[in-house]
Write a structure and sequence with these properties.
By secondary structure, the chain is mainly α. 72% of the residues lie in helices and 0% in strands. α1 runs antiparallel to α2 and α4 (89-100) packs parallel to α6. The N and C termini lie far apart (63 Å).
C-alpha cells in the first residue's frame, strides 16, 4: 500500500532518518516481553506500528539508507548479546526491525545483514535465547531472495535443527518454504538434509507440513530431467528410495493417519509426472528430427531414448509398488497412472520390456478399485503396444 515515490525525499530525508533511529531506540527500550494479556495486546500493536513506520522510512529515503541507519544499533545489540546471552532483548528487537524492512532491501545485505545472520545461525541453540532464535528464523525467510549460495548450507543447517523442535517448527518451516521458493535451483544438494527430519514431520501442524512438502516440491522441480536415470545420483536416488520407504511403511495405505507422509508421496509423484511429461515431449521431438538435423547436433535422439528408458526403469518399480499398496486411493492412482502414461508415450516401442508388468499392475488395480483411471492408462498402453507379437497374448489374457 506504500508508494516508494510518494514522499518528497529531499525535504523529508533528515526527518525520516531521525524517525528510523528513534523507532529502533524505542523498539529496544520496549523489548521486554509482556507479562499480562493486556500488556501483550499493547506490545503487539506497538510492534506493528514500529514495522509500519519503518516501511514508511523505506518509502521516503529508500530501503538501503534506512538499513544503514539501523545497522549500527543492530551490530551493537549483536555484540552485547554475544558477550552476555542474558541480554537478548535488544537483539531480538533489532532483528524484528530488520525483518520489517526486508521486503524493500535491494542492496546492503552482503555487508550489513549477512555476517550477523550467519553468526547467529552457526551459534549453538542454547547460546541464544528462544526469542532471538525465533526472530532469526523469520529473518532467514524474509531475506531469502538475497541469500547467496555460500549462505545456504548454514541457513539450511539452522532451519533443519529448528524444525525438529515443535517450539520453532512454525517459523522454520515457513522460512524453509520461502528459501526453497526463491533459491530452489541452489537447494538440490540439501534435499537429503530435508528428508532426515521426515520422522518428525508428522508431529508438525498441518500448515507446517504443507510448507515442508511445498519446499521439497520446489527443489524437485529444478532437477535436470536426466538425473533420475543415474542410480547413484546423490539427490534423486534418495528421493526414490525415500518414496519406497514411505510406501513400505504404509504412508499411503487406505486409512493411513500420516497426512504429512502421504503429502510427500503425492508431491514426489507429481514431480515424476512432470518429469516424464517433459521427457515425452523431448522424445517426440527427437523422433521427428531428421537425420541431417541429428548430425548437426540439434537433438540426439539415441541419447534421449536411452535416458527415457533408463528413467522409466528407475521410476516405474516405485510407482507400481505405490499402486499395489493403495489401488483404491484415487489421488495416488491418478498421479501414478499419469506417470505411467507419460512413460509409455515417451518410450513408445522401446517400452516393450516393461509392458507386461505394467499391464498386470493396471489390471489388478482396476479389479481392486474399478477406478476409470486404470482403463485410461491401459488405453494408452494398448495404443502403443497393441501390435507387438510379444504383448498381444498378455493383453488377451489380461
Amino acid at each position: 500500500h506504500r508508494d516508494l515515490h510518494s514522499f518528497p525525499t529531499r525535504r523529508s530525508s533528515d526527518l525520516f532518518t531521525t524517525l528510523a533511529t528513534t523507532l529502533m531506540a524505542r523498539a529496544m527500550e520496549s523489548a521486554d516481553e509482556p507479562v499480562s494479556a493486556e500488556e501483550e495486546g499493547d506490545w503487539k500493536r506497538f510492534r506493528v506500528d514500529v514495522g509500519d513506520c519503518l516501511l514508511d522510512c523505506c518509502a521516503a529515503i529508500g530501503a538501503t539508507p534506512t538499513l544503514e541507519v539501523l545497522a549500527p544499533s543492530i551490530q551493537q545489540a549483536a555484540q552485547t548479546a554475544a558477550a552476555n546471552p542474558q541480554s537478548w532483548q535488544q537483539l531480538e528487537a533489532a532483528l524484528f526491525c530488520l525483518k520489517s524492512i526486508a521486503r524493500y532491501v535491494e542492496s546492503g545485505f552482503q555487508e550489513l545483514v549477512k555476517p550477523m545472520l550467519l553468526s547467529l545461525a552457526t551459534a549453538h541453540p542454547q547460546s541464544i535465547s528462544p526469542q532471538v532464535r525465533r526472530q532469526l528464523l523469520v529473518c532467514i525467510g524474509s531475506f531469502a531472495r538475497l541469500a547467496t549460495a555460500d549462505c545456504l548450507p548454514t541457513f539450511m543447517g539452522c532451519l533443519h535443527g529448528a524444525m525438529a523442535d515443535p517450539v520453532f517448527a512454525p517459523e522454520a518451516c515457513h522460512s524453509l518454504r520461502q528459501l526453497c521458493e526463491v533459491k530452489s535451483a541452489d537447494m538440490s544438494q540439501h534435499l537429503e538434509l530435508l528428508f532426515q527430519i521426515n520422522d518428525n514431520v508428522d508431529q508438525l501442524g498441518r500448515k507446517e507440513q504443507n510448507d515442508f512438502v511445498f519446499a521439497i516440491s520446489c527443489i524437485l522441480a529444478t532437477l535436470p530431467l536426466d538425473q533420475l536415470a543415474v542410480s547413484q545420483n546423490r539427490v534423486v536416488r534418495p528421493v526414490l528410495d525415500k518414496m519406497m520407504a514411505l510406501i513400505s511403511s504404509g504412508a499411503v495405505a487406505e486409512g493411513s493417519p500420516s497426512c504429512a507422509r502421504n503429502g510427500i508421496v503425492i508431491t514426489l509423484l507429481e514431480r515424476l509426472v512432470s518429469t516424464m511429461d517433459a521427457l515425452s515431449v523431448r522424445s517426440q521431438a527427437a523422433l521427428r528430427t531428421t537425420a541431417s538435423d541429428a548430425q548437426k547436433g540439434d537433438v540426439d535422439s539415441k541419447a534421449v531414448g536411452q535416458t527415457v528408458l533408463a528413467v522409466a526403469q528407475e521410476v516405474l518399480p516405485v510407482v507400481f509398488r505405490t499402486l499395489q499398496c493403495c489401488p483404491q486411493n484415487s489421488t495416488v492412482a491418478e498421479q501414478c497412472c499419469r506417470v505411467v502414461k507419460h512413460a509409455i508415450n515417451a518410450c513408445e516401442e522401446a517400452f516393450a520390456p516393461l509392458a507386461q508388468d505394467t499391464l498386470q499392475v493396471l489390471v489388478e488395480g482396476f479389479r481392486a478399485s474399478s477406478l476409470s483411471v486404470y482403463i485410461w492408462c491401459m488405453t494408452t498402453l494398448v495404443g502403443i503396444m497393441g501390435t507387438s507379437a510379444q504383448f498381444v497374448p498378455s493383453l488377451v489374457k489380461g
